[in-house]
Specification:
The protein is an alpha/beta fold and 382 residues long. 33% of the residues lie in helices and 21% in strands. The structure holds zinc ion.
């Protein structure tokens, strides 16, 4: 192979972004707003960052939760970021609890770029996956727009307001962040055909019995005893979640949406494929991570967490944020939180509050919160 071609191909994407950031001093704030009550969970995340000494702040919103949390995002950005301009709006995947609040952001704030997946643009390319369902291109397009109604509404809003639309596939750059997953072909030819098929896993459907009679059996865990399973599975919609990554001040920051084990592996592989530039393993860099899918136990495994965070005792001083409903009985799972703590994370949960991670930006006078505790007893799998 021609080394120049290899050089060119790694010159774009995550390696390039991180190379550009290497010598910059960044100030940033990451805010997770609360979404929903009871067993509804969702994500509503705002980020503001700037290079030290500059006033050129960039603002990114990742998912907007419900209409209510979308409104809260608007107020938050006006109050704490003192602007009504958002540079980048990113929708990780089309689920209502992530996409619908973004329409409020689009309506009430000025937006520079909208980043959403638009699978209906590819019906010619993917129609053959739907042959057995006797679908025409027209009916497939219609079905995708229905299935993605919340994100399709964002596309329509953006077109109305002349906001530029981009698609967040692996290798794309959104501001100072790189898209690690989903890879475009995997998304179009594996995940999209699976969108309708994938059954909702138990973890995602509310188990009335569990919460109503509090019949959850517990099993023992310790720092050395982990019961988290290797074989967790989540829906194709969740696996399609955009995974974003950057390194500010030489420290990795990752947002995961509702991504599952496959997508997280995809992200790690992508990082490693750029290892000519990125000389360390990702776990040595990663300092801040979003716990995927509100702390579900089916989106992570010991193996993928070892890759992302290092094995037990290998790293410390990492921060993890989890967005979970205030009174949720299923999110976050204790077995999932333990797995993050075991690998050197302090884990903080929204559970009705806005939580923020601030680096070198003005003190807001907010009070410190306590991280979640390690649990000696965790939910047994059924
Ligand atoms: Zn979700």
């Amino acid at each position: 192979m021609n080394p120049l071609i290899i050089g060119a191909s790694i010159g774009i994407g995550i390696g390039w972004i991180i190379d550009q950031l290497k010598d910059k001093k960044m100030k940033y704030e990451i805010d997770f707003l609360p979404v929903g009550n009871g067993d509804t969970s969702g994500d509503a995340i705002a980020i503001r960052y700037v290079e030290d000494g500059s006033n050129d702040y960039k603002i990114m919103v990742i998912d907007g939760g419900t209409q209510e949390s979308g409104q809260a995002l608007v107020e938050h950005i006006k109050k704490y970021y003192e602007t009504d301009y958002v540079d980048y709006v990113v929708n990780t995947h089309p689920d209502q609890d992530h996409a619908s609040g973004l329409s409020v952001v689009m309506e009430q704030l000025e937006v520079g770029e909208l980043w959403i997946h638009r699978p209906w643009l590819y019906v010619d390319e993917i129609i053959h996956h739907f042959q057995d369902q006797r679908m025409t291109k027209e009916s497939l397009e219609r079905r995708l727009k229905e299935k993605f109604s919340a994100s399709y509404a964002l596309e329509e809003l953006a077109e109305e307001k002349d906001v530029k639309i981009f698609e967040p596939y692996q290798g794309k750059q959104i501001g100072e962040f790189g898209v690690m997953s989903p890879e475009k072909d995997w998304y179009l030819h594996t995940l999209i055909p699976d969108f309708n098929k994938t059954p909702e896993k138990k973890d995602e459907s509310v188990s009335m019995l569990d919460s109503a009679i509090n019949f959850v059996k517990n099993v023992f865990e310790s720092f050395d005893v982990e019961t988290l399973r290797e074989d967790g599975e989540t829906s194709a919609d969740n696996e399609s979640s955009v995974i974003l990554y950057t390194e500010f001040n030489d420290k990795g920051i990752m947002f995961t949406g509702d991504a599952g084990i496959q997508a997280l592996n995809e992200a790690v592989d992508y990082y490693n494929d750029n290892s000519v530039i990125l000389s360390d393993d990702i776990y040595e860099k990663l300092a801040f991570i979003q716990v995927p899918h509100h702390g579900s136990r089916r989106n992570i495994s010991p193996n993928i967490l070892d890759k992302l965070l290092g094995e037990k005792g290998q790293s410390e001083n990492k921060t993890a944020f989890v967005s979970a409903g205030k009174d949720s009985t299923k999110h976050p799972r204790k077995v999932a939180i333990n797995a993050f703590i075991r690998r050197g994370c302090k884990v903080y949960a929204t559970q009705g509050n806005t939580i923020c991670h601030i680096h070198n930006t003005p003190d807001r006078g907010w009070s410190a919160i306590t991280p979640l505790e390690f649990s000696d007893a965790v939910e047994e799998y059924d």
